[in-house]
Amino acid sequence: MPRLLVQKFGGTSVRDIERVNAVADRVAASVVGGDRVVVVVSAMAGETDRLEGLGFEVVARPPPREMDVLLSAGEQVSVALLSMALMERGCRARSRLALQIGIRTDGNHTKARIEHIDVEGLNADLAGGVTPVVAGFQGTAPNGDITTFGRGGSDTTAVAIAAALEADECQIYTDVEGVYTADPRIVENARRLDAVTFEEMLELASLGAKVLHSRSVEFVGKYGVPLRVMSSFDEGPGTLITTEETTMEQPLVSGLAYARDEAKLTVLGVPDVPGVASKILGPIGAASIEVDMIVQNTGADGSTDLTFTVRRADYERARETLAGIQKVLGARGIEGDDRIAKVSAVGVGMKSHAGVATRMFDALAAENINIQMISTSEIKISVVVAERYLELAVRAIHDAFGLGDAIAVEDAG
Amino acid sequence: MPRLLVQKFGGTSVRDIERVNAVADRVAASVVGGDRVVVVVSAMAGETDRLEGLGFEVVARPPPREMDVLLSAGEQVSVALLSMALMERGCRARSRLALQIGIRTDGNHTKARIEHIDVEGLNADLAGGVTPVVAGFQGTAPNGDITTFGRGGSDTTAVAIAAALEADECQIYTDVEGVYTADPRIVENARRLDAVTFEEMLELASLGAKVLHSRSVEFVGKYGVPLRVMSSFDEGPGTLITTEETTMEQPLVSGLAYARDEAKLTVLGVPDVPGVASKILGPIGAASIEVDMIVQNTGADGSTDLTFTVRRADYERARETLAGIQKVLGARGIEGDDRIAKVSAVGVGMKSHAGVATRMFDALAAENINIQMISTSEIKISVVVAERYLELAVRAIHDAFGLGDAIAVEDAG
């Protein structure tokens, strides 16, 4: 029974023509083996940065609509090149842009969300023996404008197409062998995981483990798309993202993630009355700035301080937004720090165990790392620390949970 | 009365961000001055070459459909950047791609022809005070594929849009100050022409005077679009392309053009019977190879040699096509030379004068340059010479007709 696969290749997988040819070999092998394949490709490594740089050279804050036109050119180049390479191998490949196949999104430029995928064109391609090579990262707004999905958005394209076509598997090819217990560039003995649950993956992805775009993982949960993260360069099983907890003895913590490009803002001394948080965060949301962690401390004098984190790129804009409403809020002042980082421990195993947080905090204390903010969920504990302690914090926590040791099975403290 | 202008900027005019800003200043000045403007932009200088190079790195003969997807990404980048720069100057600019505004072409990839332009979107932009920034060089085939118009095709985009919108003037901004009597890089005393007729311009453009894409000049004749070639870098009147012979004393020769990237093929000893030329050139045309000059000599033995020229890039493919039909033709052999060049003298003034050809051939003979082929029309005489004699030939003919001397008015010999 031939399978229907969606194979997604990231920027490093198509960094140069040699790599493009290697990707074509891999896709062609699947097609020759009898599988039907939809390919999704990112821009060649470095190209999105180059294009973005041109935009910022023109103007300090490029208008998002034109930024999307600019950046989406990168994927247009890579789909054309990969299609050529596939045709050279006897595959009937055809490049497909978002404007051509109908990847319909909202109109939120530079961070659009997919609302619908027109499957007719892709199905016609597959029925006709054509391998569509789809430009990742890009979509079409209701008014016909080009939109993009934010960095890593090609993953979302792939998973959304896999969901729409009810594909047998969505394979995300990348420059790592799978999902690790922590970033191997920071933690020497980080270990590849055979499987993680999609809830864990969602936390890992959204928290900066750069293997997958978090929107793509949401689709796994929502539509049950079987997703596998694999290496473009080595043969290997990769990491399967499952909708179930697969092992009986679930480790306490499956992996660590970090986010380096964070910033925090504190609104000082606002009246501690109902609705003050939404008065602060409403304008931030209206400015399309994503807020991550939120902490509010109640003071003794009837006023309170509210701290939240945003992406570092949004820091200045968030500060200006707050400055504009400071008077209305009756706030004493605005403070901020754009040199912070977030480290998170993630694991479905921590649901049923106490003491995880304590072990994590102890590990940081032993290294004299001050914790600035804490946030927890059922399967995750996150802390904010000064950016300069990031690597040290990740290694300390990795050791504390014995993640580098493939044999150890963790138990609650 | 505000004018409706189409302003087209070539690759050198948007080579870097500094130039993009200079173009934006110029367009914004027109808009502030009250004109309504549609902008057409080429890819940044060097970008089309870079992209094409990537394609040829993948495969020796890139499939034309994917080549069009690849190359059209270049214009996508420049329209986004220029739109940003215009918005920064308070212009309500919006980038518009061929897929978005409906520049409808045939399906002949890499050398498509415009069949229709949907003016509704552009008119809506103009009516709403928006300055559309249109990607040149690209169109959409009936099946929704991206097509391109060949090098210099952005001129065609501009003129076709000017015709469709019935614009007051189509201004082609380039890196030269107008149309010259000959390429100033080859001929030191070449002179800018105030005006040329569109017939002359058509010959000059199609024969390699790289100022304008020949398809764009055809539109001038067909729709009477007032066209002006101007410098992006200097203020100046440029050269007006007219539909009339504007001066009473028309010079014998208005200008010289050359085409360097030419090749010739000779089919030797085919039976001299009716229909043999079409048997040879039919398969060449079917392979989408453009034939330029055709010369046939009748031999004494009932057989004939037929020679024709093609673009150098098509040479190998043309040779293979001929090799495939040699037996059917009963030809004795195939010969070729891909190191030839064509030099042409163009002028509506030669219509009513004899002796122009003689003066041209004398000039070449005086320099010991062998003429390999000759072709003439009402307003043009072309010769093929070995490529290494190209510059020498151009200078000799330029001198022979006194083109460098602004005062001299030529008379028939």
In short:
2 copies of one chain form a homodimer. The first copy, chain A, contains 12 helices and 18 strands.
Structural account:
The first copy, chain A, is an alpha/beta fold and 413 residues long. Chain A is built from 12 helices and 18 strands. Chain A has helices at residues 17-32, 47-58, 64-88, 98-101, 119-127, 153-165, 198-206, 214-223, 276-286, 315-329, 356-366, 390-400, and strands at 4-9, 36-41, 93-96, 103-105, 114-117, 131-135, 138-140, 146-148, 169-174, 195-197, 227-231, 239-242, 255-271, 291-298, 303-311, 333-346, 373-377, 380-386. In chain A, a hairpin with a 2-residue loop joins strand 17 and strand 18 (380-386). The A-B interface holds A 17, 20-21, 51, 54-55, 57-59, 62-63, 65-67, 69-70, 72-74, 76-77, 79-81, 83-85, 87-88, 94-95, 97, 99-100, 144, 146 and B 17, 20-21, 51, 54-55, 57-59, 62-63, 65-67, 69-70, 72-74, 76-77, 79-81, 83-85, 87-88, 94-95, 97, 99-100, 144-146.
Keywords:
homodimer, 12 helices, 18 strands, disordered C terminus, alpha/beta
Order of adjacent strands in the largest pleated sheet of chain A: 3-6-2-1-9-11-12-10
* Oligomerization category of the chains in this entry: homodimer
H and E string of chain A = EHEHHEHEEHEEEHEEHHEEEHEEHEHEEH
Distance between the termini of chain A: 48 Å
Uncertain residue ranges of chain A: 406-413
Give the SSE map.
2 copies of one chain form a homodimer.
Chain A: E1 4-9, H1 17-32, E2 36-41, H2 47-58, H3 64-88, E3 93-96, H4 98-101, E4 103-105, E5 114-117, H5 119-127, E6 131-135, E7 138-140, E8 146-148, H6 153-165, E9 169-174, E10 195-197, H7 198-206, H8 214-223, E11 227-231, E12 239-242, E13 255-271, H9 276-286, E14 291-298, E15 303-311, H10 315-329, E16 333-346, H11 356-366, E17 373-377, E18 380-386, H12 390-400
Parallel strand pairs in A: 1-2, 1-9, 2-6, 3-6, 9-11, 10-12
Antiparallel strand pairs in A: 4-5, 7-8, 11-12, 13-15, 13-16, 14-15, 16-18, 17-18
Helix pairs in contact in A: 1-3, 2-3, 6-8, 7-8, 9-10, 11-12
